[in-house]
Amino acid sequence: MTDTQLPAIITSANVTKHYNQTYALAGVDLTIGLGESLAIMGPSGSGKTTLLHCLAGIIRPDEGAIRLLPTDRSARADVTSLKESGRTALRREVFGFVFQQGLLLPELSAVDNVALAAMLAGMKRPDASEHARAWLQRLGLAEHLHKRIGQLSGGQAQRVAIARAQVTQPVVTFADEPTGALDSTTSTEVLSELLASTTGRGSTLVVVTHDETVAARCSRIVRLADGRIVSDSANQAQQAPAQFVQNTEFAQNNR
Ligand SMILES: Nc1ncnc2c1ncn2[C@@H]1O[C@H](COP(=O)(O)OP(=O)(O)OP(=O)(O)O)[C@@H](O)[C@H]1O
Ligand SMILES: [Mg+2]
Fold first, then answer.
1. Of all atoms in ligand 1, which is nearest to the CA of residue 42?
2. Which stretches of the chain are assigned E, i.e. beta strand?
3. How far is the centre of ligand 2, averaged over its atoms, from the C-alpha of 210 (Å)?
4. What does the alpha-carbon distance between residue 144 and residue 125 come to, in Å, rounded to a whole number?
5. What angle do CA 42, 44, 46 make, to 5 degrees?
6. What are the beta bridge partners of residue 65?
7. Cα 229 vs. chain centroid, distance in angstroms?
8. DSSP for 184-215?
9. Torsion of CA 90, 150, 189, 166, to 10 degrees
10. What is the C-alpha separation between 94 and 235, in angstroms, rounded?
11. What is the pLDDT of residue 6?
12. Angle CA(70)–CA(248)–CA(52) in degrees, nearest 5?
């Protein structure tokens, strides 16, 4: 169990990562709950992105273990010792990613960007296109399905990134400064959509942010300094409603 009494979905034990003489992570122990929204905060260079990338199997730590615990939609996995092919499959099928820039393919339309992610996770093209359209419509982009990414505003592009991350109904969504380039109104809207499509459906959101207003809307805030966790606090006002935590029916019906 996690601090918030949710069932655990990811555990990290004594995770370290160094680059030359610099310790980006100096021993991180963290248990993340299913249905939790976890904000990772800390000064620039404190190891936030490195931790997110280790948890998500993008980079391998030097030491320590990261485990994905089993759910009704994903098997147990030892993220740190999986081969590259296994980590790629996890990233495509079990995890979702929303980053500040990148990941979206500028030459493809909004709907094709989202459908491609679904196809990479194993969905057939007609299903992938249908799910992509449904997600973009849900996120208010019905008018923009066929625009290329470069023809969208920053907020619209971030909604496409959310649709792209959510079309596979990931168990855990990792976001690194997802609202960092947006004005405050758009940031609030995009975060609401990100929370609704993750914790609102019983899955987990791990979000790196410098923005206290973003963190205040998450159910838990972990602060890093020099590669270590220096505080870990539950945000009682933002706990995931209990009925959503076990609710994976939507996810199963929409795969
Ligand atoms: N590929 C790399 N090569 C060398 N050093 C790196 C590399 N990636 C990260 N570092 C170093 O590791 C430390 C942690 O970096 P990280 O990117 O995790 O910080 P951060 O908390 O995400 O910072 P920011 O808020 O600026 O994004 C920094 O000192 C950084 O310079
Ligand atoms: Mg960073």
1. 21
2. 8-19, 22-33, 37-41, 63-68, 77-78, 95-99, 172-176, 204-208, 220-225, 228-234
3. 9
4. 20
5. 60
6. 13
7. 19
8. HHHHHHHHHHHHHHTGGGT-EEEEE-S-HHHH
9. -20
10. 26
11. 82
12. 55
Between CA 110 and CA 150 the distance in angstroms is: 10
Beta-bridged to residue 222, according to DSSP, are 40, 232
Residue 172 contacts residue 94 (beta carbons within 8 Å)? yes
From 19, 25, 60, mutation site for ligand 1 pocket: most ligand atoms within 8 A of C-beta: 19
Q: Whose CA is nearest to atom 30 of ligand 1?
A: 45
Q: What residue type is assigned to position 12 of the chain?
A: S
Ranges of residues in the chain with a pLDDT under 70 are 1-4, 102, 239-255
Q: Give me the residues paired with residue 38 across strands.
A: 206, 220
Tell me if the pTM is above 0.85. yes
Q: Write down the pLDDT at residue 182.
A: 86
Q: Which ligand gives the minimal distance to the CA of 53?
A: 1
pLDDT at 102: 63
pLDDT digits (tens, 9 = 90+) for 89-114: 999 999 999 987 768 999 999 999 99
Distance CA 52, CA 142 (A): 32
Identify the pLDDT of residue 72.
86
pLDDT of residue 250: 35
The number of residues in the chain equals 255
Pocket of ligand 1, beta carbon within 6 A: 19, 22, 24, 42, 44-50
